[in-house]
Design a protein that fits this description.
Elements (H helix, E strand, L loop, with lengths): L9 H6 L5 H20 L6 E7 L5 H15 L4 E5 L7 H10 L15 H12 L6 E2 L2 E2 L4 E2 L6 E2 L6 E6 L18 H6 L4 H11 L1 H6 L4 E6 L4 H18 L8 H9 L2 H10 L6 E5 L5 E6 H4 L2 E6 L17 H9 L3 E5 L4 H11 L5 E3 L4 E5 L11 E3 L2 E5 L4 H11 L7 E3 L5 H8 L3 H7 L8 E3 L3 H13 L3 E4 L4 E4 L4 H15 L4 E7 L5 H5 L3 E4 L8 H4 L5 E2 L6 H9 L1 H15 L1
Helix pairs in contact: 2-3, 9-10, 16-17
């Protein structure tokens, strides 16, 4: 996917009689909002976005803008519907006025919509159906548009924007209905029958519809007192465009009409803002002063993990044991990034076996690989490599070989490079099958050292290569030499790419088992050391700030990750969503 461009909204401004400042609002608020909606959309599933806002707040215009942006900048197909288009006919409302209460003659409040049609239409669109009739209501005639004039969708809809003044509203408690909130309720609903009926409708059939929403937006006015002026402006635009009609209002009748909405609008202003995914705060001029996204307040867990001895058993390298748990994490949107000493060939083979499609870091932070189109924009500095974007953090192995000859030739008798082993020897040394050993030999940036000398000679090698600018890491089986890179630096670089691609904050969890994982663990918000009985250096790197698992890999990995509060919350939310 290419980077989304800002839509030329000049025709859009003319269509909605909007000032040029709307261009600024779109760039400052609405496009980031669109990105947040896309981030919340589950792959392969249609999405319902509810937009709440009092009369004249701009919810219809916002819905139209979001449809324009999504359809112009993404592969998704979207459409907007208004709750107003589901109003009952004048005859049906007059029947309610006669049978239930006279105030039901006026369109607007819960009870005056065809909720059965509303639920059927939204359900059909979210089921991917084509040719779904899209209801329309003519406010000029105060009646639905004839059905043969309704439009329909010509292809499946991916995102439905559903806007309305009471969309996503919740009912009040019975005690809240006792006192009237305005002159209309005091004089024309003195016994409270109308408002109790409205509240009952809102508590029942309307909640069935509102519960279908996957993402909720609220345009919040400063107060109810601003609503009349906004709605009056909206009415004047309607009259200027279509003329006076059965359903239009003068200033006096408009004030009475708006009184029908006051109770629920005031309740929304007091309570709804605390439960939406996106809150847009308006001033008295209807300008947006601030946008608050729920995603900005909830940290996304990002797990970086070593493989051998951490995620995989140090001796058997068994992958199948961890596969179900990785799938569960992926299903809840938790990214697990492999950060390993293994090669590109090894990791792609492992990820294929695990059905795991995530970025990864190889050869102790030497290079980062990101599946193409994983992010919307290709990160700066990357080249293309076998279906991945690759960012190299260091030089190739040729330079390492030159420096070993120059700075550590005196230890050559007890140094054997990984690349000097045969696949059969690697298999015997590590326990890997021969075919996997061949993958391990495909090194591009590093060449681990198998050291056979004394402890004194080993320290001499470490000192010599350290003076040459290398970081020397003693792993479980090999000595690793890195220059200008490590797992921690690569982890930070990849984290920055996630931050550029997504608005929400991240909390980094890192898991390792040996010295070459230290930089990765130090760079994390939560560091977990996996118990490795075979590690000779683990006791030296255990720090108080790091957790130590009771069990070795992979059971220790699963146990520690499962116990994290942020992961338990993700699992619980997913389970609740599934039950819902």
């Amino acid at each position: 996917m290419q980077e989304a461009n800002v839509v030329d909204i000049t025709p859009f401004l003319a269509k909605h009689q909007l000032p040029l400042k709307y261009q600024y609002l779109s760039e400052q608020f609405f496009i980031p909002l669109a990105h947040d909606i896309l981030s919340a959309k589950m792959t392969g599933q249609p999405m319902l976005v509810a937009i709440n806002g009092c009369q004249g707040s701009g919810k219809t215009t916002l819905a139209d803008f979001l449809v324009t942006w999504v359809n112009s900048n993404t592969e998704f197909n979207s459409v907007s519907l208004s709750i107003d288009d589901f109003y009952l006919s004048r005859d049906a409302r007059n029947e309610l006025a006669k049978d239930v209460h006279p105030l039901f003659a006026s369109r607007g409040v819960p009870g005056t919509h065809d909720t059965q049609l509303m639920e059927q239409t939204l359900s059909a669109l979210l089921a991917g159906k084509v040719g779904v009739p899209l209801p329309q209501f003519d406010k000029l005639t105060d009646d639905p548009v004839p059905k043969d004039h309704w439009s329909s969708n010509q292809k499946p809809i991916d995102i439905v924007f559903f806007e309305g003044w009471c969309v996503a509203s919740t009912p009040q408690q019975p005690y809240q209905l006792q006192a009237p909130v305005n002159e209309l309720e005091q004089l024309e609903d003195a016994d409270g029958i109308w408002r109790r009926c409205v509240n009952s409708c809102l508590a029942n059939e309307y909640q069935n519809v509102f519960a279908m929403a996957d993402y909720t937006i609220m345009l919040k006015a400063p107060s109810f007192e601003d609503v009349y002026a906004w709605r009056l402006e909206q009415e004047r635009k309607l009259i200027a465009k279509k003329g006076q009609g059965q359903g239009t209002f003068d200033e006096v009748s408009l004030k009475r009409f708006i009184s029908h909405f006051e109770r629920i609008t005031r309740e929304n202003l007091a309570t709804l803002a605390h439960s939406v995914d996106a809150l847009l705060l308006l001033d008295t001029e209807r300008d947006i002063t601030k946008m608050e996204l729920l995603a900005d307040q909830i940290a996304q867990p990002l797990i970086f993990t070593d493989l051998d001895g951490t995620l995989l058993d140090h001796d058997s390298y068994e992958c199948e044991v961890i596969k179900p748990f990785l799938a569960k994490l992926n299903d809840t949107g938790v990214n697990v990034i492999f950060n390993t000493s293994k090669t590109f060939a090894e990791v792609t083979d492992i990820q294929k076996g695990l059905d795991h499609h995530q970025p990864f870091i190889v050869e102790n932070g030497a290079a980062v690989y990101i599946p193409k189109d994983y992010f919307k924009v290709k990160p700066i500095g990357c080249d293309d490599y076998k279906g991945y974007w690759r960012f190299a953090m260091t030089q190739s192995t040729d330079k390492l070989h030159e420096d070993l000859k120059q700075y550590a030739s005196q230890f050559s008798h007890c140094v054997r490079l990984f690349s000097q082993f045969s696949a059969q020897e690697i298999a015997e040394l590590t326990g890997l099958p021969v075919d996997k050993s061949e993958l391990a030999l495909q090194r591009q940036y590093s060449d681990p050292v198998c050291f056979s000398g004394s402890d004194e000679e080993k320290q001499g090698l470490i000192d010599a290569m350290s003076q040459a600018g290398y970081e020397v890491l003693v792993g479980g089986r090999f000595i690793h030499l890195t220059k200008g890179n490590n797992k921690g630096l690569a982890q930070k670089w990849l984290l920055n790419q996630f931050k550029k691609a997504y608005r929400n904050p991240f909390t980094v969890i890192a898991l390792g088992d040996s010295q070459n994982d230290v930089a990765m663990l130090k760079a994390a918000d939560t560091a977990i050391l996996i118990n490795n009985p075979g590690s000779q250096v683990q006791s030296q790197i255990l720090q108080k700030a790091w957790q130590l698992s009771e069990k070795p890999a992979p059971a220790g990995w699963v146990q520690e990750v499962s116990a994290l509060t942020i992961i338990k919350a993700r699992f619980a939310a997913k389970q609740e969503q599934s039950h819902g």
